[in-house]
Amino acid sequence: xxxxxxxxxxxxxxxxxxxGGGTRALEHFSLEIAERNFVCxxxxxxxxxxxxxxxxxxxxxxxxxxxxxxxxTVTGPGRDRGMVFQxxxxxxxxxxxxxxxxxxxxxxxxxxxxxxxxxxxxxxTGLERFERxxxxxxxxxxxxxVALARAWIxxxxxxxxxxxxxxxxxxxxxxxQELLLEIWEQTRTTVLFxxxxxxxxxxxxxxxxxxxxxxxxxxLDLAVDLPRPRTEEILTSPRFADxxxxxxxxxxxxSRRAFGHLExxxx
Length: 267
Ligand SMILES: Nc1ncnc2c1ncn2[C@@H]1O[C@H](COP(=O)(O)OP(=O)(O)OP(=O)(O)O)[C@@H](O)[C@H]1O
Hints:
This is Taurine ABC transporter. 37% of the residues lie in helices and 23% in strands. By secondary structure, the protein is of the alpha/beta class. The chain has two domains: 35-60 and 158-264, Rossmann fold; 81-155, no CATH class. The strands form two sheets. It has a six-stranded mixed beta sheet, with helices on both faces. The chain starts with a strand and ends with a helix.
């Protein structure tokens, strides 16, 4: 399978870089993601997970190294990459279907086509009965389902997800994970998914990549050897427990290292 997203020796430094200053968010960060793969990114807080996504989205340019999509350097945002954030960021003055149709309408799609495609994704996300509802009439999980439909409507070959279920309660979260996998099985979009939650990463991913404490680089790249379609029972399987233990141990060590580093700095 061809490489869809590649990070080659990426360094990202924020702030005043003179005299070695600034914040080194990423250093020697290298990662290749094959087309149609679902890769989850885990790591201690502040290790640079969102920075990785922002670079792939083209919101930022790397200080060093390269970020490539289909072998071409990313120079800015593009319709080939959809993004889902922790907050659904819906426009409150537009109803559900108008929010989902926003991208296609801005891109000049014929209205009938945009409407048909929006209805298709509202059906897949179980929101067909709510298309005329205002966003304040929806629960957090429903709002995030609208955000998923909005990201998917243009059928971008790459989906970048930054803790999209982080604000949801555990039960809603599991339902959303199952829904995401169900749609992904049909679309086979290449997904890069950031999360703090090891269970979530292992439940969703073909691979789980664990990052080091800041400056972030790849510490572990684990192929998730669990059958698909994934069901709730997988969460209690011995293979799942083994992989979870490995990831947790590494993240724990890195988090303690990051904390020790801060203490050393007198913080
Ligand atoms: N625009 C920015 N300007 C300055 N510093 C930044 C900027 N964006 C990120 N950083 C810094 O870069 C480092 C990595 O941040 P990033 O948000 O990518 O980490 P993260 O792993 O996503 O964090 P968390 O898990 O807590 O959301 C942090 O030290 C952060 O303060």
